[in-house]
Give the backbone structure.
Amino acid sequence: MSTAIPRFLRAVYQLRQAVLPQLVTLGETLATWSHKIAAMWRFTRSNTITEGFHTKMEVLQRQAYGFRNFHNYRLRVKVSCS
C-alpha cells in the first residue's frame, strides 16, 4: 500500500506528458483529484454502510407514498436493513 501513492503519481505524470490529447486530459483530471485519491488509499474507513442503509430507507419511503404511522415505517426499515 505504501508504494501505491508514488506509483500513482508517476503514472499521472507520465499521462500528462503523453502525446495523445485524451491521455493528457486523463492525466489532468487525475492530477486534479490526486489528493482525494491518495486520501482514499491512506484512510481505510468509509461511511458506505451508513449510506447504503440511508438509500434503502429512501427507497422504502418512496415506495410507501407515506405511512399512516411512524411505527409501521420503523418496523419496515428494521426488516429491510437487518
User: Anything to note?
Assistant: The chain has a mean pLDDT of 83. The radius of gyration is 22 Å.
